[in-house]
Amino acid sequence: MKLRTSARRRSLGNVRFIGELYKLRMLTPKIMDECVKMLISSREEESLECLCKLLSTIGQQLEVNIKDLAEQNRAKKINPQPGKWTADPKFMTNTFNKLKELSNDKSLSSRIRFALLVSTGFLGCFIIETLIF
Fold first, then answer.
1. Residue 93, class by beta-carbon neighbours within 10 Å (0-12 exposed, 13-18 middle, 19+ buried)?
2. pLDDT, position 126
């Protein structure tokens, strides 16, 4: 149990470190896109927890950067090429939709489902709506 907790902590620390490297522009949006896709496709609880941590660290900046890249490509009239990465302006929307979908997966622990809801911002909207009404 102690080894598992230690490994989990180390994984979360590594993900946070990767996020900080991105914020310092030492990693590219393409790399972060691949990290997010890898973590979300795993469907393991540890990976999803790391994804939530990564998105809390860089989500807003990643969304802005990818949208800016997509807009630059559109302005330059660069068409996507098969097999080559291009910025998808709907990347974060698609990611959050997948997280919302996963938050309804009863095979995941309630702790992870809750973390997914927090990451999508859905939980915040629900709490505010509950408090107001």
1. exposed
2. 44
Mean pLDDT value across residues 21-47: 94
Under 8 Å between Cβ of 120 and 100: yes
- What b/e readout covers 38-71, taking b as 16+ CB neighbours within 10 angstroms? ebbeeeebebbbbbbbbbebbbeebbebbbebbe
CB atoms within 10 A of CB 10: 10
Longest CA pairwise span in the chain (Å)? 54
- Side chain identity at residue 29, one-letter code: P
**pLDDT value for 122:** 59
**DSSP, residue by residue, 1-65:** -HHHHHHHHHHHHHHHHHHHHHHTTSS-HHHHHHHHHHHHHH--HHHHHHHHHHHHHHHHHHHHH
Supply the pTM of this predicted model. Answer: 0.82
Domain 2-79 has CATH 1.25.40.180: yes
Q: 66 near 91, Cβ under 8 Å? A: yes
**Encoded tokens for 112:** 């992870």
